[in-house]
Design brief:
Layout lengths: L3 H8 L3 H9 L6 H14 L5 H8 L4 E6 L5 H16 L3 E6 L4 H13 L4 E4 L6 H8 L5 E4 L9 E5 L1 H14 L5 E5 L5 H16 L9 E3 L4 H13 L5 E4 L2 H13 L9 E3 L16 E3 L2 H17 L7 E4 L2 E3 L16
Parallel strand pairs: 1-2, 1-3, 3-4, 4-5, 5-11, 6-7, 6-8, 8-9
Antiparallel strand pairs: 10-12
């Protein structure tokens, strides 16, 4: 690989002059500039990003740490972050921890060693180890979607509790009263907030919250499928609120295998509005906001933090809304009375 000294030798000038041309740090004559550019083209020279970052004290690089890149939610979130960063001259290093604390810790150390300009963390929530690891980090940082207790950083997230409330109220307005929920892991804050929204909607409607209608799962289609299999085998409910779309997709599969028609016999609503939810059959009614826009917002907040590190931390809580599709319908023979 050609070096800056190779370029200088071919152009017949000093390597410091080549540096001035490449980095535009000092004016040079047109003749010299043409010689340097010709030599660069001939040698296919690529300037060292490391050397330039040491001089400029910036790497134009953002670190992004996610818990599970196989989850379409995090894939869409990363795309929004990348789009915003690319427009602003930053590249993104994506690290997937696979919900593994050791892997997560190693990635965090690696990102900080690379002297990234900023860090975006999409946490699985309820992770004390990650919170401890981030507590002393001085790099500008944004936590996205799932807050971490004890970490003083900007936060961008959906209003999980209100979104779950909207989803459950939607089912109530369709006349459903026997409503079950499949929540995420109880150790995660996001699952707790979404379960709280479900409970509040039923309480406001004067409906008892029954323990057998609340099942815990992980945020995967497999988890949703297994939990739905239990619900549908014994006195099935007329509606299910799935705590995320992946769970909801698993519910649709479990219902299809048991010849339970959605939405005429079972209404299903999810949460997040991942792109995949539009293309399953029936298309999944859900609660959410554009995940791409959420990612862009997180990146915008981080770039603002990089530019002005002394600003007070902020929380941006995005209000979700119902996304009507095909998987929910009025309870057969019943007109919705709850408004």
């Amino acid at each position: 690989m050609a070096t800056i000294k190779d370029v200088a030798a071919l152009a017949g000038i000093s390597y410091t002059t080549v540096s001035h041309v490449v980095n535009k740090t000092r004016p040079v004559s047109e003749e010299v500039r043409i010689k340097v550019e010709a030599a660069i083209k001939t040698l296919d020279y690529v300037p060292s990003a490391v050397a330039r970052s040491l001089k400029a004290k910036t790497t134009a690089t953002i670190g992004l740490l996610v818990p599970n890149s196989l989850n379409p939610y995090f894939a869409e979130l990363a795309r929004g972050i990348e789009d915003c960063c690319e427009r602003n001259g930053y590249c993104v290093i994506l690290c997937n921890s696979d919900d593994n604390p050791d892997k997560q810790r190693n990635y965090l150390r690696m990102l900080l060693e690379k002297r990234i300009d900023g860090l975006i963390v999409a946490s699985a929530g309820g992770d004390c180890g990650l919170a401890q690891g981030l507590s002393g980090v001085r790099t500008p940082m944004v936590i996205v979607d799932r807050g971490l207790e004890g970490v003083d950083a900007d936060l961008v997230r959906i209003d999980h509790e209100y979104g779950a409330y909207l989803a459950t109220r939607h089912l109530l307005e369709l006349g459903h009263r026997d409503i079950a929920t499949i929540s995420g892991p109880a150790t995660t804050r996001v699952a707790q907030m979404r379960l709280a929204g479900f409970r509040r909607a039923l309480k406001d409607a004067g409906i008892e919250v029954r323990g057998e209608r609340m099942l815990e799962s992980d945020f995967t289609s497999t988890g949703g499928y297994n939990a739905a299999a239990i619900l549908l085998e014994r006195n099935p409910p007329t509606a299910i609120f799935a705590a995320n779309d992946m769970i909801g997709i698993g519910v649709l599969r479990a219902a299809a295998e048991r010849n339970v028609r959605v939405p005429t016999e079972l209404s299903v609503i999810g949460f997040d509005d991942i792109q995949m939810s539009r293309y399953v059959y029936p298309a999944l009614t859900t609660v959410g906001q554009s995940i791409l826009q959420l990612g862009e917002m997180a990146a915008e907040v981080l770039l603002r933090r990089i530019a002005a590190p002394d600003l007070a931390t902020e929380q941006r809580i995005v209000t979700p809304s119902i996304v009507m599709r095909e998987s929910t319908a009025p309870l057969a023979g019943v007109f919705a009375e709850y408004r």
